[in-house]
């Protein structure tokens, strides 16, 4: 997998040479290159931002610098695209706003769910985008080329993703959580780690990926883990885990995962497919107050 990252702080990504991702690069599983966006500027100040059109606080990243950079990294020729976003002179401001809200919804959908391996995927972290999930990480781990663009300041000009989508590029915008960071660098590190650890050969133990939280169709939070000693400072490991009875251990862990998910993330319980639950799962969920006779569990 080839990964390009564009940022005004490319040094931030030196940490990627450490740990498992560093090893994966040495093994040739991934090739990560961090580029400095300012290398594509032409003015003495190497400026990448400008004031927002329509007023407001902060600065917005300019489309011209980004497009020179992205055209080069994506091997695209500059062109002009026709978009119907130019409103008629007598259109009201609210019609304008509704129209752009509609296209924002379109953008938010990250339409190309499964990336085709031969097409690069251009990813912009953005606090006002859909949440990045384990499913997105899994899908993106199948791509051959990922290109991350890190925004700074108040963000980037909205026409940048719009233009590259119009060019047929698979463009995604993701938020990593409901909070605002100073820029996209941390968000890119998070997404990169979630994606690359899924690459075949990246992790020593592939089974640990299958078992962990948010993985698979019927995702639950993971059960608790213990190691030796069996009694530590007065706190004992649950007896069943020491029994050597694998079926009982599996059931205990599964029930614990169901109980923990019920308590912390009931939305994940509501998303379960009841047809994929076994008899013991149903019994546990019913004891936790769920109705399991429909397509998905419903709280009683
Ligand atoms: N940039 C700033 N905040 C962000 C967030 N929460 N997710 C993704 N990108 C961001």
Identify the bound ligands. Answer: adenine
Helix content: 25-40%
- The CATH class assignment of the largest domain is Alpha Beta
**How many discrete structural domains?**
2
Largest sheet: 5 strands, parallel
* N- to C-terminal distance: 47 Å
Q: Low-confidence runs (pLDDT<50, min 5 residues)?
A: 86-92
Count of alpha and pi helical runs: 10
- The CATH topology assignment of the largest domain is Alpha/beta knot
Output the helix-strand order.
EHEEEHHEHEHEHHEEHHHEE
Give structural notes.
This protein is α/β, with parallel strands linked by helices and 300 residues long. It folds into two domains: 2-206, 3-Layer(aba) Sandwich (Alpha/beta knot), CATH 3.40.1280.10; 211-299, Trp Operon Repressor, Chain A. The chain has helices at residues 19-26, 63-74, 93-108, 134-140, 159-166, 185-196, 206-211, 246-264, 266-270, 279-287, and strands at 2-7, 31-36, 49-50, 60-61, 121-125, 145-149, 170-174, 231-232, 235-236, 290-291, 298-299. A five-stranded parallel beta sheet has the order 2-1-6-5-7. The protein has a two-stranded antiparallel sheet with strand order 3-4. The longest helix is centred in the C-terminal third of the chain and has 19 residues, at 246-264. The two termini are 47 Å apart. Residues 86-92 have low confidence and may be disordered. Bound molecules: adenine. Adenine binds next to loops.
